[in-house]
Amino acid sequence: MRRFKRRSARMNLLHFRVLTNRFFRQIFTNAGLLLPLLLQAPVMLLILAIVSRGDAFSARDVTQANVVCFMVIVMSALMGILNSYREICKEREILSREVFGGLDVSAYALSKFFVLSVFGVLQSAILFFGSMAFIDYAFPHPASAIVLCFAATALTNISVTALGLLVSAILKKSESAILPVLVIIIMQVVFSDCLIELGSGAEVFKFITPAAWGIAVFGNVSGINGWSEWFSKPMYDYSPLVSLLALAAIALVCMLLTIARLKHVYRQKD
User: Fold this and answer.
1) Do 263 and 105 touch, CB atoms closer than 8 A?
2) What is the sign, positive or negative, of the torsion defined by CA atoms of 249, 255, 256, 261?
3) Those residues with Cβ within 8 angstroms of residue 184's Cβ, 6 or more apart along the chain or in another chain
């Protein structure tokens, strides 16, 4: 039994490597896949440059600083969902043939997640570090703050990517994803606990909203809660590490559910 498990683990790892290489090749040899991944971040960055106030943090303008935090994180979340929401359901027929031919669904889901996460980190780097060219974040502790804010931007993208893969695993056709994707986008906007004041009944949703945790990191390292007597966000007082762990946990849970969903769909193979 132990020997079988070791061999099975090696085979699953082999499947993961092969699928990862294949997915990278698909992207880099298909302009229709590659260009959207490369152009999303520059377009988002251009929009951010047009609408944001560059001295919002140095001037300690609470409203404008929150707008910048909101836009950077929500834009990162939007890229994550756009990257992933069709990835599994559009390959349903191909996946069915390969699974019944011996493909491991865990390796398949993880390869999708890994490749899209690589692009998500690249997109986040372009968005966040590019924004530093025209936004003076005026961090009290720049070195650690830059690392933490980039990590928050990247993990927001990654966690929403995982959420998009879960949606894609649940649905059979990509055309059916419009409504779930719209709900996810609205969720990042409404329950981010940034620009919209949440009532007591709605506050619980912010804890399962990736954008809320990403914005909390920006709010904490910028010290926004200390700028004004009338402004205070409880999540801005959370340790950045807690917020980053929450984002990682959301991504992990979504991927476990994605794998469980695919194993349930193809349970007859076993």
Assistant:
1) yes
2) positive
3) 81, 160, 163, 164, 167
| Cα distance between residue 226 and residue 104, in whole Å | 51
Contact 51, 71 (CB under 8 A): yes
Could you read off the pLDDT of 54-112 as tens digits, one per residue?
Answer: 999 999 999 999 999 999 999 999 999 999 998 888 888 888 888 887 888 999 999 99
Q: How far is CA 122 from the centre of its chain?
A: 12
What stretch of H or E contains 93? helix 92-99
The pLDDT score that the predictor gives to residue 168 is 93
- Whose tokens are 């961090």? That residue is 139
DSSP code per residue over 55-110? TTTTTT-HHHHHHHHHHHHHHHHHHHHHHHTTTTGGGHHHHHHHHTTT--HHHHHH
Asked if 72 and 48 count as a contact pair (C-beta separation under 8 A), the reply is yes
Q: What is the pLDDT at residue 8?
A: 63
Give the closest residue to 142 by CA, choosing from 71, 80, 223, 201. Answer: 223
Per-residue CA distances from 33 to 41, 193, 241, 253 (Å) = 14, 33, 34, 27
* Residues 159-171 pLDDT 10s: 999 999 999 999 8
The encoded tokens of residue 114 equal 């890994």
DSSP string of 174-188, one letter each residue: GGGGHHHHHHHHHHH
Name which of 188, 165, 181 is nearest 72 in CA terms.
Answer: 188
Is the pTM of the predicted complex or chain greater than 0.90?
yes
Rounded Cα distance, 24 and 17, in Å: 11
pLDDT, tens digit (0-9, with 9 covering 90-100), for 108-144: 999 999 999 999 999 999 999 999 999 999 999 999 9
255 Cβ partners below 8 Å, 6+ apart?
A: 109, 110, 113, 162, 165, 166
Q: How many residues does the chain have?
A: 270
What letter does residue 196 receive in the DSSP assignment? S
